[in-house]
Every structure is written in structure tokens, then in C-alpha cells.
Amino acid sequence: MSETETIVTRFAPSPTGYLHIGGARTALFNWLYARGRGGKFLLRIEDTDRARSTPEATEAILQGLTWLGLDWDGEPVSQFERRDRHAEVAREMLARGGAYRCFSTTDEIAAWREAHPREPFVSPWRDADPDSFPDAPFAIRLRAPRDGETVIHDAVQGDVTVANDQLDDLILLRSDGTPTYMLAVVVDDHDMGVTHVIRGDDHLTNTARQIQVYQAMDWPLPSFAHIPLIHGEDGKKLSKRHGAVGLHEFAALGYPPEAMRNYLARLGWSHGDDELFDDAQARDWFDLSGVGRAPARLDFKKLEHVSSHHIGGMDSNRLMAALDDFLQASGQPVLSDLQRDRIVASSEVLREKAKTLPQLLDQARFAMIERPVEVDEKALKALDPAGLDMLGTLTAAVQNVSWSREELEASAQAVASDKGVGLGKIAAPLRAALAGRTSTPSVFDMMMALGRDETLARLRDQTKTAG
């Protein structure tokens, strides 16, 4: 392609189920390649399998891509709605001599394949005299070359050579007039101006056949790049037994989309030793030369590391938006305005240790619960008479101080010194009273997030109960 030609990539999922994590990565690679070069990223829904394609699956794909943050140019294209165009190309190939009528029945073809299990099917109608054509339905087959080779110049796999005598004359248009997937893909990619076909290497065997369709129509070939599949941590093909495999499952597990983009970009592609990066860097750096040939392995520990990095870098607005999306994806209730205010007030400390959004919400539980605080069995041990005595003294000490972390720490330290104990001895009952559990953020961070009135009310609840 010329230096001035616009790069056009596409993502073409089949709407037969959820958006697989492998499909999401393919979409990301196409998006990065186009966006990093000022090109276009198109979306085509390959819905020709009417028995399995559903509107619900199409909507799930669109929602998944939107959640992942991948925008596309123009409206999504329905492959099924272009069936007349596909049939038109098949008939044009027939008129040009690049295709022929095949009257072989399904039973005849099955019998031939049974008798010749290791040979590609060669239709007896390929070179038949038109005068011998019966008055019967026929399929249109590609008149593929029978000698020589078809070479796939692949940006990832290198040159892949296929002997033409190992390929049969693929059906372009079935006898009922419906186009095949192999024809539809080529016609759509050509008509949409796709310059780079970036897809999983499970499509590599189809590419030689598709190249022959391009050549039969004298159409320019796009650049091909077949990326390796994603395997589980055990090195086997990714499946449900490995845990989450659908993009929606990762959203429901609380991995934010920016973390997923970062992690998926590194899953089979590398830029030196860079592991953590933002979208701008990914767009600038991404190139097909950095994609490896070996299958990538899904590693949840690495994903958590990447997720922790991106959660830690969120500002309050982005954090709250991410939490809203997570709660929706996991089917949980929305946050109240009060809960949101408290989480924002403690967001800096909450982000420090959280690897996922559920972990962050777990740490933020103190901000989300209402009075009276229910104290679990482990935390209840700190609310013994000595602990409650310290809480009563601390309540009196802080009710009139300026509500700053420095003043609160100084007051707690003074009470601990007066009681002849370390600060930890007062922190334990304080943590139990404020959060009802032993694992929480700093007690002073909780006090700052809850504010004076709520903090004092929670402390008084416990001391009154004791009294």
C-alpha cells in the first residue's frame, strides 16, 4: 500500500455467544494498529449462520467492546444483509470463468470423499460441456488453480506456502442461492476497503482459499497477520475449565477496562520490557513485528498486577465511574450519594492495596454500612471492658478537636499514653467500632472519611451498648 493510503482494520465476530477474551484481544490489536496510524477500525457482525446468530449475542458484543473502550468507525455492518452482494460477485466470477456450475448432490460428494479420504474434492462438473448441464439446482464453485502454490505473506507467521493441489474448489454460492462464509468474508473485506486483516491463527488455513478468491476477482490482497491463540496457564487451549473466558466475566470480576486493555495488549505482543502502559503509549508502540508466534498464556496473577497499577492511578471521578460499571456488570445495587462521598474521601488509601474493584469495595465496606455497625466475632474481642473504656475516653477527647488527621492521631496517642498502652491497643477497638471487622484501612483514614458526626455516633453506639 502507498504511504498516503489510509489503513483500515476490522473486527468481525460471529454473534453466536459471548465475546470471548481471545476475540476481545483480536479487536484490541486491530484497534491499536489502526488508531496508532490515523486509520479506521471497522466492525462487521458475521451473522450468516442464522440458526446460531442472535440479536442478544450481537448486543453483548457491542456492549463488551464499548466497555473495553474500543470505538469503531461508522455503523456495524451485518454480513447477512449483504448476501445479495455476495451472490452478485459469485455470478460475476461465473461469467468471467473464475467459477463454474456444480450439479453434484450432497450424497454424491459424500460418497466421493469416503472413497478418497485424503484427497481434496474435484467436481466432475469443473470442465463439463455446458450442453451436458441438467435442468437442476447447482452450486457455484471457485475454479481454483490445480498446480503451483499459494503463498500467504503473513506479518506474524512469515511466508506460509500451500500446494494448490491440496485445496478443493470451494463453494461460493450454494444451490439454494445462499453465499458461503468464505466468499462473504472476501467480498466484505474488499468492499469495506480493509487493508490489514489481523485475526487469530485458527483462520490461517482459510486464508489460502480466500487469496484465491481475491485473485479470481483481480482484487488487491490485504496484508495478513495471524496472531497466536490464548491458552490457559497449563498451556492448553483456553476453555471454561480455566475460569473466566468471556469478557463480561472479567468485567464482573472487577478488572477495570484500562487494565484489561493493558494486559490484553501484552498477551502475545511485547515492546521491550514494558509491562505497564497507558492507551497513548500502546497506540504509539503497537506494531505487528512485536507479536510472537507462540500461543500466549492467560496469567491471572499478572492481570491482578496490571489491574492494581491502573486502579492506583485513577482519580476520584474515574474510580467512581469504574465502580459504577463494575456494580452494574456484577448485578449489585448502586451506591448511594452518601456512600459515594465516603469512598471519594478515602479513595487515596483505598486505591493503594486494591488489585481489583471488589477488593477496593471490600476495604470500603466501612463507608458503605449503616448504623448500628454489626461487629463480627473476631473484631468483637477488642470490645472488652478495657477496649470500651478507651473508646469512651477517646470519644470525649475528639468530639471538640478540629477534624484533621493530625489532631485525631494526636488525641488517640494521648489517650493511649494516659492508659499506659501502645497506639495499637486503642486502634483495635476503634477499628471494631467503626467497621465491625479487623481488616480495614487505617482507623484515622476511616474517621476522616466518615466525618465527625458519623464517627462519634458509631463510637457512642458501642459504649452505650456496653453501658
UniProtKB/TrEMBL annotation:
<dbReference type="InterPro" id="IPR033910">
    <property type="entry name" value="GluRS_core"/>
</dbReference>
<feature type="short sequence motif" description="'KMSKS' region">
    <location>
        <begin position="237"/>
        <end position="241"/>
    </location>
</feature>
<comment type="similarity">
    <text>Belongs to the class-I aminoacyl-tRNA synthetase family. Glutamate--tRNA ligase type 1 subfamily.</text>
</comment>
<dbReference type="Pfam" id="PF19269">
    <property type="entry name" value="Anticodon_2"/>
</dbReference>
<dbReference type="InterPro" id="IPR000924">
    <property type="entry name" value="Glu/Gln-tRNA-synth"/>
</dbReference>
<comment type="subunit">
    <text>Monomer.</text>
</comment>
<keyword id="KW-0067">ATP-binding</keyword>
<dbReference type="InterPro" id="IPR001412">
    <property type="entry name" value="aa-tRNA-synth_I_CS"/>
</dbReference>
<dbReference type="InterPro" id="IPR008925">
    <property type="entry name" value="aa_tRNA-synth_I_cd-bd_sf"/>
</dbReference>
<dbReference type="InterPro" id="IPR020751">
    <property type="entry name" value="aa-tRNA-synth_I_codon-bd_sub2"/>
</dbReference>
<feature type="binding site">
    <location>
        <position position="240"/>
    </location>
    <ligand>
        <name>ATP</name>
    </ligand>
</feature>
<feature type="domain" description="Glutamyl/glutaminyl-tRNA synthetase class Ib catalytic">
    <location>
        <begin position="7"/>
        <end position="304"/>
    </location>
</feature>
<dbReference type="InterPro" id="IPR004527">
    <property type="entry name" value="Glu-tRNA-ligase_bac/mito"/>
</dbReference>
<keyword id="KW-0963">Cytoplasm</keyword>
<comment type="function">
    <text>Catalyzes the attachment of glutamate to tRNA(Glu) in a two-step reaction: glutamate is first activated by ATP to form Glu-AMP and then transferred to the acceptor end of tRNA(Glu).</text>
</comment>
<protein>
    <recommendedName>
        <fullName>Glutamate--tRNA ligase</fullName>
        <ecNumber>6.1.1.17</ecNumber>
    </recommendedName>
</protein>
<dbReference type="InterPro" id="IPR014729">
    <property type="entry name" value="Rossmann-like_a/b/a_fold"/>
</dbReference>
<keyword id="KW-0030">Aminoacyl-tRNA synthetase</keyword>
<keyword id="KW-0648">Protein biosynthesis</keyword>
<feature type="domain" description="Aminoacyl-tRNA synthetase class I anticodon-binding">
    <location>
        <begin position="322"/>
        <end position="461"/>
    </location>
</feature>
<dbReference type="Pfam" id="PF00749">
    <property type="entry name" value="tRNA-synt_1c"/>
</dbReference>
<dbReference type="InterPro" id="IPR045462">
    <property type="entry name" value="aa-tRNA-synth_I_cd-bd"/>
</dbReference>
<feature type="short sequence motif" description="'HIGH' region">
    <location>
        <begin position="13"/>
        <end position="23"/>
    </location>
</feature>
<dbReference type="GO" id="GO:0004818">
    <property type="term" value="F:glutamate-tRNA ligase activity"/>
</dbReference>
<dbReference type="InterPro" id="IPR049940">
    <property type="entry name" value="GluQ/Sye"/>
</dbReference>
<dbReference type="InterPro" id="IPR020058">
    <property type="entry name" value="Glu/Gln-tRNA-synth_Ib_cat-dom"/>
</dbReference>
<keyword id="KW-0547">Nucleotide-binding</keyword>
<keyword id="KW-0436">Ligase</keyword>
